[in-house]
Structures are given as C-alpha cells and as structure tokens.
Amino acid sequence: MKTTIDQPEGKSKRIFWSLLFLVLAAMSVWAVTSQSKGFSPKKFVEYVKYSNPWWLTAAFLAMLAYIAFDAMRVRCLLRGFRYPKSAANCISYAAADIYFSAITPSATGGQPMEAYFMVKDGVPVIMSTVIMLTYLFFYTLCIVIIGLVCLILAPGAFMSFSVTGRIFIGVGAVIQVALAIFYGMLLWNKGMIYGILRWGLRVLAKLHLVRKLDEKEAKLKATMEQYEQATEMLKGHRGLMVKTLLLNMAHRVSQIMVTVFCFLAGGGSLKLAPKLFAMQSDVVIGSCCIPIPGSMGVTDYLMIDGFSSMMTEQQSANLELLARATSFYICILLCGLIVLVKSATLKFRKTEPTADTAAAVEAEAETVIEAVSEDSDEAAEIITEAVSAGISDAET
After folding, report:
1. Looking at the structure, do residues 381 and 296 belong to the same domain, yes or no?
2. Are residue 296 and residue 249 in the same domain, yes or no?
3. 352, 396 in Cβ contact below 8 A?
C-alpha cells in the first residue's frame, strides 16, 4: 500500500518564500511606524516594558493555544477516520499549516505541506485530502460565524472603521461566505468536483499537455470513488463534526484574544475589551479581501484604522505592533522551528514501517472487512491476507 507523495515544494522555493516573508514583514513594520505620528522605537520599548506582565503572559499563552487547538482539530479528525496520531505529530501538522500558509502566496502552501507530513506518517492521500477540505470548510465557517455574532452584539465596532476599512471588511465577508459554500460543495458534492477535474483534463488534452485522456479519466474516476467513500464517513459522524467546529472556533478565538490581552496589558479598560474583540474579528475578515502577501498590509491598516477610534494614534501603533509580533511573527517563528524539527525527523527516520503506519493499514483493513463481511466471508479473508502481506512492504 503506497502512502507516499512527492514533497509539494522544493527546498529552494521554501527558502525563497521564507526570505520574501521576512522582507514583507520588515516592510509592514516600517509602514506602520513611518505612518504613525509621534511613534518612536524608544516609546514602544517603554510601552512593552511597563505593560502588565500577567496580561502579556496571557497573550503569549493565547498564541500557544492557537497552535494547540489547531493540533487538537487535526488529531480529532484523524481519530475519527481511524488514523490516530500522537500529539507531537499533530502539533507538527498544525505548525506546517500555519507556517507555510503565512509565507506562500494566497496561503497555498499550508494545506499541501500539512498533507505531506500526514502522508509521510502513513495517512492515505485521499484521506488527508478529505481532512484538509473539512478543515478549510469549518475554518472559513467559523470566521463567518464569529464575525456575524460580533456584528449583531457590537455593531458599533464595525462602524468605527473608516469607509475604506468597511469596504475591505465587506469584501472579505463576501469572499469568506463564498469559500465556505464552495468548500462545503467539494466535501459533499462528488459530481461537482468530478466535473471540474474532468473538464480540466479535457482542456489540458486539447492543449496537448495531457496524453492518453481515456486512461487519465479512468484513473480520475477510480480516485473519485475512493474520495466519495472517505466523504461518506463524514455523514455518519455528526459528533465528530461538532467537535471539529468547536475546536476551529476555539482556534480562531484564541488568536483574536492575543490582541485583547495585549490591549489590557498596555492599560486598556476591561469595559472596552468586548469592542476590541469585535474589531479584531472584523480585521480578520477584512484581511481576507486580498490574498497573501497583500493581506499583511491590509491587516496592519485595519488594525490602526480601527484602534485609532479608541485611543491615540501612538497607542494604536504600539498595540498593533505588540499584538502582531505575538500573534503572528513569534507564532510563525515557533511554527517554523517545529517544521524544521519535523523535517529533520523525516529525513533521518528509518525506511522501515512505523507503528503508526502499521496501525493505519490495519485500521483500513478493518473498515474494508466490515463493509464486505456481511456479503462474503471469503472476500473478507482474502482482503485480510492481502493487507497482512502488504504491511511488511508499507512505505512510511
């Protein structure tokens, strides 16, 4: 049973995007500091120095919770699909998603790298694909839900932004709703995704970029049958879906709370914390109006734009830099280190099948056997023998 896929990005490309991310991060900080009247590095250092250490600790813990809840989401889905993985592995999957989503255009590298690590640890490609789509659906849905709740409970937060800021947020909201619908259809509408992929193959064939179209379409059909079997498992796991939704919700809330805790650390009033939470939720939605790397600039703009209605421009710049440093830059650095350790582990790991791989194969065998045992005991016996023989040749 083959459980390996090619690494989605070469080493040179990863280095390039990492360096570009550093350049863009530096430009983003420069833009904030240069456009803020009265800002000075000395005043910012004093702002951090005299901040409440307990609230700063809470902000740092919220950032760690952001990673932890993402890892718990992955682990929950893997267990639900009978491919249990250790907490350490799930943390590396979450870190890969966060890190590569931050440094690649339109966040295109996050899910492929997360899936790559999963497959290397014995999760079938089709199953990792379904898990990624499930995550994207609930991740996007949670952004919409949190934003809608904040709009209903604190409409003044949205109106505190400038006209340009409200346009960014409105466009981001439309895009997120459209994406949630699209991801949902990909999960539960086999005909749609099959039609899109088949159309793509035929276009490529007309351009003479794909040969043997009939064979490619036959392989696509077989793959889609496996995909349908995997997505069918979701329909019978309502409890799993609820847990995934709640974990994604906690994942999003913990990131927003970093800004709230930084606000309180700098002497902000507890009475204004709910409004700031709603503002930061709007910032998250607005940042989705354009893809990365442009969204980095939009995020900085919206934070300054919104916070300036509650405090001085100097204070809003200090809060923006501290919150972004904690929730984004330090988080990305930490995730990058975790990814580095995971990559080194995979590189030097022996090629023999791990316990995780064997457990995954056995779990898949049990699923198949349960499906056919009612109709044919002989078929179940044949499958058992085939899988048992395949375990010794399984690739990690």
Report:
1. no
2. yes
3. yes
Q: Is 339 within a domain?
A: yes
Instruction: Spell out the residues 6+ positions from residue 288 whose beta carbon is closer than 8 angstroms to its own.
Output: 143, 172, 175, 176, 295
Which residue's entry shows tokens 């179209």?
213
User: Tens digits of per-residue pLDDT, 3-47?
Assistant: 444 455 555 655 655 555 555 555 555 555 555 555 567 777 888
Query: Which of 330, 349, 368 is where one domain is finished?
Result: 349
User: Residue 330: which of 258, 393, 243, 247 has the closest Cα?
Assistant: 258
Instruction: Give the side-chain half-sphere CA count within 13 A for 213.
Output: 13
Rounded Cα distance between 124 and 132, Å, is: 12
Mean pLDDT, rounded, for 371-389: 45
Same domain (yes/no): 326, 375: no
Mean pLDDT of the chain: 76
Query: Structure pTM?
Result: 0.73
* Domain housing 19: 11-182+238-349
Please check whether residues 145 and 100 belong to one and the same domain: yes
How far apart CA 280 and CA 327 sit, in angstroms, is 12
